[in-house]
Amino acid sequence: MLDVLRYFERVTRPVDPLTKEMMSNRWSELPDKVRTRSQAIGRHGVGCEGTHGVFPRCNFACSPCYHSASANRVRTDGEHTISEVAKQMSFLERVRGPRAHAQLIGGEVSLLEPEDHARAIQVMRSHGREPMSMTHGDFSYEYLLRFAVDEEGKRRFKRVSFAAHFDTTMVGRKGMRVPEREIDLYEHRREFAKMFQRLKKEHGVRYFLAHNMTVTPSNVGQIKDVLKDCQSSGYNMFSFQPAAFIGNEKRWKEDYREFSGDEVWRQIENAIGTHLTYSMVQVGDVRCNRTAWGYFVGDRWYSVFDEDDPDDELARDAFYSYLGGVHFNAPPLLLALRLTRVILTNPTIVRVGLAWLVRRVKKAGGLSSIVGKKIVPMTFVMHSFMDASQVMPAWELLERGVWSEDPEILATQERLKACSYAMAHPEMNRVVPACVQHSVFDPQENVVLESLLPLPKRVVKTGVLHTDEAEARGA
Ligand code: SF4
């Protein structure tokens, strides 16, 4: 009996003690300038994670492409994927704690057999990761069905998460091989989301969809076309990545430094028709990430916390203090028990939460303005990868424990230290920032994988033709 009570006490703790310890470690590693009141790393989680070297190949030819030139010479192999994902996730669980969001990323995930894709997701979940599959979105409903539902018609997952990349930097999509304008991809974006709506209707599988766009001088002015009707298109996150000089040099086609992050953010704000607050919740270094958490009421977007409202600042601080580190994707009953414990030990959270809710209703124009309107959670993100030419020297100095005297390299070092996107190297007993993975480790890693997983001759030929054709078309 005592053992049962002890177990109950342990599993209903609002935050796992190991999670607390890992968050505190992460906080202490952050550079001073990002340890702000709004910083989420170390106060709500340890940051995001991603896989590498598990399926490097892709059947598109994007410009830019962050993968090294040799990535497409590596065969996609289900067994290799599962075993590498297991090693990386097990390591992350050990060194970063029992819970985190993690991206299943290569390469193109849908080149995996759907059953292998599903197994990789299950392995990630078994290590406490909340996985998201990163894809170009060019697969069929049949693929999605085989991924989400087993041979006996039983769903494998109650909920799935995908991030789909759609933009004019990509070459190879069926029915839109070389898109010229972002608006030309509008139907493809919607059709992708519709597959998940159908999956939910037919098999009860819930979903979270993010939309990714690489931003270049050629398409920065078309962000409004990407965000056309975004509140009703099925996505709950739009993420913009200003292009960087990383990966395959043959795919660098423009001066990606012609515009600033401010310009990208302005374009998103113009499209949404309102200011997008990103100072209230910071994820790592603001030069890497801007995140505006909010929701649409009808066609108007509202921020979860307003930056000009001191009460919202207090509500944000209360969230971090009392709910920071809570695993909100836990099974509903377990989550309810954990939240009950939070309330019993910190009853003030109820007052703060209700006051916050009342303010949200008022901001939206009162109850009468909300009733009958659709409320859609929507987050806007800008993630700015860094150029390999900056990352390589910055990392080399960091490895020697030296801070650069060059202001640009120093800024890169600070950003790497505050990185919110980690990749695991169990063989070296360490995690590295994704920028470092792509700039420093990917090229050598893919050369090793090329001999470990060579392409069959037929595919080598197809791959070469595919890439040459795309490059000849100016991709
Ligand atoms: S260091 Fe690189 S990978 Fe890490 S958050 Fe910054 S831009 Fe992203």
Describe the structure.
Helices cover 43% and strands 15% of the residues. The chain has helices at residues 2-11, 17-29, 78-96, 114-126, 141-148, 186-203, 223-226, 261-272, 310-323, 332-345, 348-363, 367-370, 388-399, 407-417, 434-452, 457-472; strands at 48-50, 100-104, 129-135, 159-165, 206-215, 237-242, 289-297, 300-303, 375-383, 421-425, 430-433. The protein is globular. Strands 8-7-9-6-5-4-3-2-1-10-11 form an eleven-stranded mixed β-sheet. The protein has one domain. Residues 462-475 have low confidence and may be disordered. It is an alpha/beta fold and 475 residues long. Bound molecules: iron/sulfur cluster. Iron/sulfur cluster (SF4) is lined by residues 284, 288-289, 383-386, 415-416, 419-421, 433-435. This is Radical SAM domain-containing protein.
Summarize the structure.
The protein has 475 residues and is an alpha/beta fold. It has helices at residues 2-11, 17-29, 78-96, 114-126, 141-148, 186-203, 223-226, 261-272, 310-323, 332-345, 348-363, 367-370, 388-399, 407-417, 434-452, 457-472; strands spanning 48-50, 100-104, 129-135, 159-165, 206-215, 237-242, 289-297, 300-303, 375-383, 421-425, 430-433. It has one domain (2-472).
